[in-house]
Amino acid sequence: MQGIEIKNLSYTYSKKTPYEKLALDDVSLSINEGDFIGILGHTGSGKSTLILHINALIKAQTGSVKVMDIDLTQKRPKPDLKRLRTEVGMVFQYPEHQLFDDTIEKDIGFGPKNLKLPADEIKQRVRESMELVGLDYNDFKDRSPFDLSGGQKRRVAIAGVIAMRPKILILDEPTAGLDPEGKEHILTLITRLKAEISPTVIVISHDIDEITRFATRLIVFNKAKIAFDIPMTELFKHEKELVAMGLEVPLAVRVARSLRSKGIELEGNITTPHDLENAVVDYYNKKHFDDKLNSPTNSVSITSNIKNNASGENLSIAYSDNSSATPNDNTISEKEVLR
Amino acid sequence: MRDIAFGQYYPTGSPIHRLDPRAKLIFSLLYMIFIFFAKSYLVYLTIFTFIAVTTLISRVPFRAVLKSIKVVLILLIFTGMLNLFMYRDGNVLAEWWIFRITDKGIDFSIKIMLRLAFLIIGTSMLTFTTTPTEMTDGIEWLLTPLKYIKVPVHDIALTMSTALRLIPSLMEETDKIIMAQKARGAAFDTGKIHERAKSMIPILIPLFVSALRRADELADALDARCYNATPHRTKMKKLSFSYRDAIAFLVLAALICFIMVDAYHFITPDTSIASGLDYYLVEWIKSLIAK
Amino acid sequence: MEAIKLESVTLEYKSHNNGIVRAVDNVSLSVNAGEFIALVGHNGSGKSTLAKLLNGLLIPRLGDVQIYGVSTRDKAKIFEIRKNIGMVFQNPDNQMIASIVEDDIAFGPENLGIEREEIIRRVEWALTKVNMLEHRKSTPFKMSGGQKQRLAIAGILAVKPSIIVFDESTAMLDPEGRREVLAVAHELNKNENITVILITHYMDEAINADRVIVMSRGRIVTDGTPERVFAQKDMLESLHLSLPLPTSIAYNLSKSGLDISENILSESQLEEALCKVLK
């Protein structure tokens, strides 16, 4: 097995004190290799506790956790935590707060060094990781990580995790507190890491509009339980539940629903702004096509085919924030058609 | 994230919690001083009962109280051992190189360990039942006389309470940093001593950086809220003594009297290791057996 | 009335390689009492430095900052300024001074030497304003980010400022917390007539402001109504700033040839425009 198998997991913080809190309540979940998962939920809904279990950073109280072929809950022989931590990479919230070494090269090399890799292998990995996160090796390697901007620090911290070459990468609120440009960098980076380093990626985020841009599977936590676990394309079916839990509904889903309620029947599963734009363009074209059916001069059949976004593949990010980078190769042709 | 640790407020709203913080501070001071006069085991037993009853009333779980001893357990054992092996007086029971165990030494080291344990439990009861703000107000009140010789009493008190308030945040931060470094394969519990010390660096530096950042932001926040705007600072909460404080004082006074009477009223012969009331108790039991 | 006035303000600091960075570069600005201003720009654009110049945490090297006519250079009047202009910072954990809610709110008025009864009144009023009165005896340690940040606002309110600066106060919050804080900011602006300067990365937080000011490299790049500012798409793009999501959708659609208004900022405007086009 290459994925993660969690069965009947429960966890309570500060047991038997006035601060006692049930964080996970009988949660079962299986994650497959290649999954690109977004986890959504309020602060304290249990999502962070769950991912700490996957890296054995907290011990399961009841239930079982199995990561690849490592059974974390088995007593004897003890699970190989060292191997687990090379297989599972964990980027915590505000990971730049864990930087400590005096040069960027040494800080990123911390993980591989703990694995007791040979020096040239460490160097090689540091270099590769830096290039991946977009920091030039020669320019940055000897600089202090504390002199960088917030976004750069975070990229160094992420490089420190991917230098372990994890098969499973977990990121907790990877864009929190960054400005739009910093966010774009990180989001692009995550898709790239999924393609090149870690086939399985799990991202925790508060920002549903952000999650819908890349994840293909959505897990929503509410009050220590999994509220639902769905392919991202089915998100629109759960709008009411999200609202009831006080969670954000993607803007595109809200707008599409509202338009449909007014008799504008947009087609397809609309989750992202991109889906919405496509559906609107389709609808518009169809309407005009119908109008012009009688006119023999316009016989072009129009279908918008920029739908690969929803599947999360072939994604160029920088969407809502940077319209020049919108993957609208078809925009021009459509424009012409529309004219 | 973490269980209740030493020195943290434990809210239950018990009568002990509702005592005036100044009273609690004074009581704790008295308790700390007079505990060192305790002589006989009967008195130790009484103090133990006193603590146990206080804990019961405060509704702070015994587990939490015991945990506060755990923190200083090593110090406790070390002090006990030192006294056990180094005490010169009394009948020698065993001797090796510079070490000597005597009957009086055993007696003395047991008592010193008990005293220390009682001391720790007493002070942790204070922090379990008093919020940092109350503590600040109490300390400020106690230090009031120093204001007249230009000691910045409020600054001192504020520094202390801020430090206390930041403890939980910093603990949480420590946990997070440890987890993050563990996730990068760091091992903190294996290897030789110097390796272990070195392995602390990836925790200590981020923690230090974070503490500095917090201090910096806190300073801005203090300024933004007009800290030091006037020397005539006012207080929202007036402290007031109540009948509860009087009752608590009477109980403590009784305990202190008992300790002092035991220590100075009952003169015991040098030849006996039993002291104070214990001597008379032992003599009485002896006479009973003789009959 | 003019609440804030900046006259050719410049402030520099040293960068890591001993170069000199102009954090704020010859900025002039005037804010009227009662305005709601959104100050946007990416990290390092100088917006947070500007905030600290406003209440005298920083003093400009050149130029002058005046709050209700009082210069921040006037050391004797610095507390008059700080009483007038409150600041809510980014990290709610680092703004709490006391460990019980009401004690923390009382800290500001206590510093000003205000009478006891008045302090109690202010604490109650401030907590009511941020909707946290029922928590007055609790400890903030286990509260949500949004709740903590609302307490920080109450702590500032108790000083009774006429201006409040929110220095990226929503950056560390989840969407719910952001909404809560933003709602409080607007409420205070509307009902208490407090001048608000909202410093933020999130463009959708700026759409309901009276004025949007965009900063880049220490300078004010543009200053105007949200409609006017967000119409300058190319400029925002060149500064790596995002558009509010509805605006960006409308923009893309209009690029695809749909006849859709350029001045769309909010979700409801987008819906309306789409209805019009598609009906």
Q: How would you describe this structure in keywords?
A:
heterotrimer, A: 339 residues, alpha/beta, Rossmann fold, 2 domains, four-stranded antiparallel β-sheet, 12 helices, 37% helix, B: 291 residues, mainly alpha, two-stranded antiparallel ribbon, 68% helix, disordered N terminus
Describe the model.
- The complex is a heterotrimer of chains A (339), B (291) and C (279).
- Chain A is an alpha/beta fold and 339 residues long.
- Chain A is built from 12 helices and 10 strands.
- Chain A has 2 domains: 4-244, P-loop containing nucleotide triphosphate hydrolases (Rossmann fold); 251-338, no CATH class.
- Chain A has helices at residues 47-54, 81-87, 104-114, 119-133, 137-140, 150-162, 180-196, 208-214, 239-244, 251-261, 273-291, 331-338; strands at residues 4-13, 21-31, 36-41, 62-67, 70-71, 88-91, 168-172, 200-204, 217-222, 225-231.
- Chain A has a 6-stranded mixed sheet with strand order 6-7-8-3-9-10, sandwiched between helices. In chain A, strands 2-1-4-5 form a 4-stranded antiparallel sheet, covered by helices on one side.
- In chain A, helix 3 (104-114) packs across helix 4 and helix 10 (251-261) runs parallel beside helix 11 (273-291).
- The longest helix of chain A is centred in the last third of the chain and has 19 residues, at 273-291.
- A two-stranded antiparallel ribbon of chain B has the order 1-2.
- Chain B has 2 domains: 1-130 and 242-291, no CATH class; 162-240, no CATH class.
- With 291 residues, chain B is mainly α.
- In chain B, helix 3 (62-71) crosses helix 5 (103-129) and helix 7 (153-183) runs antiparallel to helix 9 (201-224).
- In chain C, the strands form 2 sheets. Chain C has a 6-stranded mixed sheet, with helices on both faces. Chain C has a 4-stranded antiparallel sheet with strand order 2-1-4-5, covered by helices on one side.
- In chain C, helix 3 (101-111) crosses helix 4 (116-129), helix 3 (101-111) runs parallel beside helix 5 (145-157) and helix 4 (116-129) packs across helix 5 (145-157).
- Chains A and B meet through helix 2, strand 6 and helix 3 of A and helix 7 and helix 9 of B.
